[in-house]
Amino acid sequence: MSDNPIVIDCDVGVDDAVAIALCLAQNQNLIGITCVHGNTSLENVTKNTAWVTSVCKRPEIPVFGGAEKSFIGDNLFAHEFHGEGGLGGMSAPSDKKDSICDEHAVSALLRMTKERPGEITLLAIGPLTNVGLAIRMDPGFSKRLKELIIMGGNTTGKGAVRPGAEFNFSCDPEAAHVVVQEMECPVTIVPFETCYDTGLPWEWYDSLAQSSSSVCRFLSEITSHSTVRQQNKGKPTFVMCDALAAAIAIDKKVITEVRRGPIHVERSGMYTRGQMMEMSALWDGDKAYSGPPVDVVIKADGERFYSLMNGLKNL
Ligand SMILES: [Ca+2]
């Protein structure tokens, strides 16, 4: 197992489920999973997460419930993509809740980073409400992380849910802005367009269902709702955004091109609330557009991602 401890903050969600399974298949030291509203309600997310770790034969991994809503505004949810309940319309069994802890996700994030200062990679693949709250509760939080990897934001205005904004940033633009402006550890952003351009071949998805692995069959069942939707829309590949972000957390060589600079998040606009604004062109030019530089992944190595994903078949 890797020595590098990793915590996943997520809104499980079918691609979150695949991301968790991928980390476990690649022997990552997953020390906790914090849950946030997003693809579905917080209640569903925590139940789904405990179910996924149980199916992956790792029920000892603690699961923490966090924010039920964003800083401002109503929940968006994405049941049309992920299915009712977040996992393709399938309900988490009622006996898979033992790993859900009483401790709040934000308290758990603060505690774990105090116990292991400078060691933890935080993989944030849901709305950034928990992470933003952690910064507000304890300004020293981000300095205690080794790094933060975010699936979220967009680079060309490609939208999901809102026409001009990616889903995770749309769910909580204020929290996303706080995070990208105030984090004091290295930050890598895996935006929507890069995920979209780094899909897996449909043949790979078909091979999941044919695998002898019970985990693969589970992943195939929960993703069938969203993959049928993608195929009906003529999508050329199987796009799993959170799994790509997990692959990058596991192996930085998956990244092939990065653009570095400060990020702002649009917090108004009928169509663009939650849109990610890259300020690199104006960096050093105007303090109004300043902030800590982050790495935005522009291109990823699809073959390397594909190779890591094949590890799921051994889980
Ligand atoms: Ca997610």
Automatic annotation (TrEMBL):
Q: Which domain of life is it from?
A: Eukaryota
Q: Name one Pfam family in it.
A: IU_nuc_hydro
InterPro entries on file = Inosine/uridine_hydrolase_dom, IUN_hydrolase, Ribo_hydro-like
Q: Which family does it belong to?
A: Belongs to the IUNH family.
Q: Which UniProt keywords apply?
A: Hydrolase
PANTHER family according to UniProt: SI:CH211-201H21.5, SI:CH211-201H21.5-RELATED
**Sorted alphabetically, which SUPFAM superfamilies does this protein's record hold?**
Nucleoside hydrolase
List residues of the Inosine/uridine-preferring nucleoside hydrolase domain: 6-306
What's the source species for this entry? Holothuria leucospilota (Black long sea cucumber)
Q: What protein does this entry describe? A: Inosine-uridine preferring nucleoside hydrolase
Q: Does the keyword Transmembrane helix apply?
A: no
Q: Which GO terms describe its molecular function?
A: hydrolase activity, hydrolyzing N-glycosyl compounds
